[in-house]
Automatic annotation (TrEMBL):
Source species of the chain: Paenibacillus radicis
Complex and partners: Homodimer.
Family according to the record: Belongs to the UPP synthase family.
UniProt name for this protein: Isoprenyl transferase
Record's function text: Catalyzes the condensation of isopentenyl diphosphate (IPP) with allylic pyrophosphates generating different type of terpenoids.
Broad class of enzyme this protein falls into: transferase
GO cellular component, one term: cytosol
Keywords: Magnesium, Metal-binding, Transferase
NCBIfam families reported for this sequence: PRK14830.1, uppS
Biological-process GO terms, alphabetical: polyprenol biosynthetic process
Cofactor details (free text): Binds 2 magnesium ions per subunit.
Gene: uppS
InterPro entries referenced in this protein's UniProt entry, alphabetically: UPP_synth-like, UPP_synth-like_CS, UPP_synth-like_sf
Length: 253
């Protein structure tokens, strides 16, 4: 199995600096930050950073797939990002469509399954249509799950879950003592996906920004100063290597 994976990577044997392929995190979640600053440093408009950020998405999807990651969740637009100037929001809303126009065939060839996590109702129809087409055409794929967090906010996600649970209690479908961690997890937008093992945030910011607050309870966190448009395969490997050097105790000893 492992040697087959190395063959897939085009390597004859593991190099010291390469991640161990039998200990790759199942689920990697990424806060892709720094697009605006990357553009500003180059005297470019912020949207140029988002555009170049798409190329980093492509690199990371490929690398995650090659390493054997099972789930890759990318924070592409938060419930708070609507506060940005309209032009920038419009551009960001076009990105899934642009990305999938270019990449969908390759994702299908590579057995990648596309998913979306967020509130669909506020999104423009072209954004939803592009994602739904991708989800439909990749629904039977069994490889990497590429999960776009779009119009996603963790507090809203939890409030919606709690309201639904409270409704079930009020209607007698649930009793309060039936509410446990498993039930809560099943009511979140991430219900079909295990909690992230590793969270990566780029651009030097050290915060979670309302991203998967429930699900990240025991995840390993890895931060880098690199701006998202420059994030590449080597950075991803570095994060996985760091993850592999950590001892996860989940509150035990
Ligand atoms: C945060 O950087 C980034 C975003 C809000 C958008 C993320 C989008 C991409 C990486 C493009 C790819 C998306 C898809 C769907 C393929 P920022 O704008 O907050 O950067 P700053 O902190 O430097 O201003």
């Amino acid at each position: 199995m492992i040697s087959r994976l190395w063959a897939k990577l085009g390597k004859s044997s593991p190099k010291a600096e390469m991640p161990q392929l039998d200990k790759v995190p199942d689920h990697v979640a990424i806060i892709m930050d720094g697009n605006g600053r990357w553009a500003k440093d180059r005297g470019l408009p912020r949207i140029a950073g988002h555009h170049t950020g798409m190329k980093a998405v492509k690199r990371v999807v490929r690398e995650a797939d090659r390493l054997g990651v099972k789930y890759l969740t990318l924070y592409a637009f938060s419930t708070e990002n609507w506060k940005r100037p309209k032009d920038e929001v419009d551009f960001l809303m076009r990105l899934p469509q642009q990305f999938l126009e270019i990449e969908l065939e390759e994702l299908i060839e590579n057995n990648v399954q596309v998913r979306m996590m967020g509130i669909k109702s506020d999104l423009p129809s072209y954004t939803i249509d592009a994602l739904e087409e991708a989800m439909e055409r990749t629904a039977d794929n069994t490889g990497l799950v590429l999960n776009f967090a779009l119009n996603y906010g963790s507090r809203k996600e939890m409030i919606d879950a709690i309201q639904a649970i409270a409704g079930d209690v009020a209607d007698g479908r649930l009793t309060p003592d039936q509410i446990d961690e498993q039930l809560m997890s099943e009511r979140l937008l991430s219900r079909d996906i295990p909690d992230p093992d590793l969270l990566i945030r780029t651009s030097g910011e050290l915060r979670l920004s309302n991203f998967m607050l429930w699900q990240l309870a025991y995840s390993e966190l890895w931060f880098t100063d690199v701006y998202w448009p420059e994030f590449n395969e080597a950075h991803f490997q570095e994060a996985v290597l760091q993850y592999q050097s950590r001892k996860r105790r989940f509150g035990g000893l």
